[in-house]
Here is the input.
Amino acid sequence: MTPKGLRLGLENAAIPIIAVILGLLISSIFVFIAQSDPVQTYQRLFCEGFGPRGCETFGDLIIFQPQADDGTTQTVFAPTYGVGGHPLSLVLERGTILILAALSATVAFQAGMFSIGMDGQLVLGSITVAFLGYWLPQQVYTLAGVIDPETAPAGLLTVMHLVIPLVCIAAAMAVGAFYSWIAGYLKVKLNVNELISTIILNAIAVQVVGYLLRNPLRSDFNTTARTFRIDDTAWLVPFNRGIFQDVEWFSGSRTGVGIIIALGAAVLVGFYLWRTTGGYEQRMTRGSRLFARFGGVPSERAALRAMLISGALSGLAGAIQILGVERRFVDGFQSSAFGFDGVLVAILARESIPGIMLFACFYAGLDQGVINLQFGNLPRQLGGIIIAFIILFNSMEDYIRRIISRIQSRLRPPRAQLAEVPGEPST
Amino acid sequence: MPQGIEMRHIRKYFPSSDVLACDDVTFAVTKGEVHALVGENGAGKTTLMNILYGLISPDEGQILVDEKSVRIQHPNDAIRHRIGMVHQHFKLVPSFTIAENIMLGIEPNQFGFIDSRTEAEAVRKLADDFGLPVNPNARVADISVGMQQRVEILKTLQRDAQLLILDEPTAVLTPQEVHELYTVVRKLADSGRTIILITHKLLEVKEVADRVSVMRRGRMIGTHTVADVSIRDMANMMVGREVILQVDKAPAKPGETVLKVDNLLVSGMGSVPAVFGVSFQVRAGEILGIAGVTGNGQTELIEAIAGLRPVDGGGVTLLGEEITNKNVRERRDDGMAHIPEDRLVMGLNLTTNLDENVAVTLYQKPGYSERGVVRQSALRQLAGQIVSLFQIKSAKIGEGIRTLSGGNLQKIVLGRELHGSPKLIIANQPTRGLDVGSIEFVHQTLVEARDAGAAVLLVSVELDEVFSLSDRIAVMFEGRVMGVLDRKDANEQDVGILMAGGSLEGDQSAQEKVGA
Here is the structure.
């Protein structure tokens, strides 16, 4: 990388970090108002979110000295110390859905479509798998003449366990893609603002899912409406019940195949956006619609394709949350706004794939830390406040860049000889 | 009364783009003179004037008004020191009347209610005082560009400006309007005001300015009395080397008809036809120049031919094949290249790097992508070829192009469009906003493409350009072609008449009006 490219790269990475620091600093005002010590509060927040069991200080996040039963201490590398389960595995569980939702937002944004329809697409995907994950195996059992799944032949169960999750996921992706396509079509053909149409479509999806959940798909008379639990053959078994059942690090977390799917999706999205003609077309459309048209890029098709992919990723997020984590659709999930959190992660990460991984986990950890903190004397709202401030500072990009460049121009005198004078920046 | 304004040792560095826009610039104007400030694009002249007007704060240096050091940190400070500026892009409210625009911010009012009659009266009086007649009640959206400029000038005069900075004032005017502007400028100078004229048209300097200051790459090269320097001298000072002002070209050897436009009808904004029954032909190996004042349907015509705008009637034929309903990609595959008017938004995508910019016309072709996967190495190779062939200094493979100069950006567009020797080259204002050196390069490139057998359709609002490049000249006025003249028979006067909507009655060249 050239020095200039390196400088820009560092600057790009520095902005979110500066934003996080500033966000924490400003939020500490509210910690003061709640009559707590900010340093202590943040230490607990980060320990609950990212530290090993028993973590108490910032230092413990990296090097930890747990006490064994016999009173002796040992020094360990904190992120891998998994006795009693590690909160980081919970971060992965929560991060999976955020990564997928953020990827979904990124694909749409990178086509110049400011779609925030992730929520609607996600809950429709979720309700689809919640239904199929229960209904489909029932049909198979009926066809095969199995009365009790416990007694079903092992071969059949294995095949079902391979096929049914795939069918469910494919269905959820198709539903999400279709729902996203509506907004894309309205934008491309009728020039309906996609921001507004996706907000409306989200509201419609939440209401429709609420209706389905409380009426045709309601499983029992539990006070909170919920669907039937999905069949075991549709379940994406978490690591701690499957291959890693002896690894204590994963205990207490429902992380499973989902995170692997999310990582795979991230790689594929990155490849699609930066290496394929489809990605090229949609990025050029975003950069300048006129430029794309002028060059003969089919920009309408590119925008629609982006919306389809974006919707499919949201549907996938919803599917994994049900198949791998919740195992049933419980009332309240449709308004938990994971999709919108994904949008925030995408914005925070400036639509970079590694950035999304990082910030999805950061966001998940912060959220988790705050949930645990609220049992103390601090309100749950603190997490929201911190995240809001971080996003606010993050969007002060231009201002931060200006400060950075002001510092640079103090430190480094400009080149005396200019080989080439670039365009006049003032006009 | 200010006796003059001096800027001493001004230095301004833009760290974000790593440009030293002004490097120890000292510049002085005296009362009552018309002072031209010339230089290539990126020479720092607009930056210098923005500093004087308080839009940019300098890193170093001082500004003296009447030999007293002053601080100008905001346009309000500049206005207080009686400095006014008319920007290249007018800053008027289109839906307001002329009077409302002139009095904006200083409205006469009673208890917060604007008295529009007093306002109109004040503007009428102001206009009469300076001999710049305007209709105070006309809406800015309805008046011509020349009139809008007059409104801008009146606006500064209303604020009692003694020093007027005019940034590229003639870029958007018709020849007649340019002459009116010169008269106004002279009159203002005679009344004791100082005018600074930012420009890169040297003919203009010769015609109207008393003194001229030349800037190059952020430095002040020198100040001269206009009568003492020739246009060639000024051009050489601007570029820093010998410039060929005249395009050297052999007579055209026209071949077969490449482009045939037949009775083309294109609607503009709000269904009013922008192009009204235009017909012409362009043959291989010739340059057809379309002259005309901005906004007479040239852009719509070009966009219709290029496939960017729907056609309402008539047809376009490329090499004998009807392309009226083909999309952009199909037209490009048939051998069309297009150098657009707006290189920043249409010609290039500034948000991405050089490779992806040169790839836009052929990324989907075999060799550049396979089964939907782009071959990065092929793109890099192509970008490298164009950079070395067109000597695009400071453009680097795989890097952003945002900070490149206008001339280098246009070279990227040229390199991409001329790649693969197209049959038809549409060049819409190919040198707009470029400096002398780059204009020279663009002109040479177009003539070389012509000599290699391409048909070139050139649109330009600069008459000089049309005259120096074209083999035949078509003149557009209000969406119609007023006449097609052979370069040999054309003179500026005739073209000027046609540009203004007149006709050459009795003149034999008018016979060519329909046929080509």
